[in-house]
């Protein structure tokens, strides 16, 4: 692919960084423009706050299932590289009520060592459970380093409008603005809404497995260890809640639920409380293209890639490759039109 095809990616969350890296490694000249970068903390910068692990949440959308498959296989390979921050751990997902889903058909071909747990191995008051070996990616800095090492360019800036990314020599703009797509001028997608998540981060290096419990009325408890010895305890799913301040009663509830699920957490040291806004979207992920014009009347292809809800890490690589395919198709069509 010719280097003359310049791409600006807006947003440096896990989706933006993954998309930028895939494009840069496939011959495009990419610049990522973002106000927030790995190491920054902001209620509008979701990726650093994410639990960031694969669970057995059933993604019925066939496109999302494809993205999940691609991302899992990619991250599995990355887990063999020491500096990525991706690790493999045993994972146990429990359901208070049997979801009556053929999970083996849905997930067996995706997850390593996937199995439905027999009834006698389930905790009290749990009707269904699965186990598999999963990845816990905390690797935004690694993605950024890979991107810049491959020749990618970064720009720390606050854009007021989508058109601000339409530089004269840019052929493509990838919109990975996440939760900000709701208010970002030129996009203003009213289907985007926040799903607030609160977590408690504790020091528990003895925890070497992930556990989660799906209860009735949407309650969701999870325990996710990091390679560093920190453990993420969650969580909440508060729709249309923008409050970035941790709530003490919620934190207490999270701790109690996690200790009940995993007694080995009793007495652990609390390190900090974190709140993030999942970039949810009615109708799911928006991954599509449109043609707009820059200030001198040149056509610019805009590829939207946002609305990943709680599945940004799970779908990041798959959606990045889909964005690449959409751009490649556009380039091929343009060549055919000139012939």
UniProtKB/TrEMBL annotation:
D-dopa binds at residues 214, 278. Residues 7-321 form the FAD dependent oxidoreductase domain. Pfam families: DAO. The keyword Repeat does not apply. The keyword DNA-binding does not apply. InterPro entries: DAO, FAD-dep_OxRdtase. GO terms for cellular component: cytoplasm. It comes from the Eukaryota. Keywords: FAD, Flavoprotein, Oxidoreductase. Its cofactor is FAD. FAD binds at residues 46-47, 177. GO terms for biological process: D-amino acid catabolic process. GO terms for molecular function: D-amino-acid oxidase activity; FAD binding. Belongs to the DAMOX/DASOX family. This is 12243_t:CDS:1.
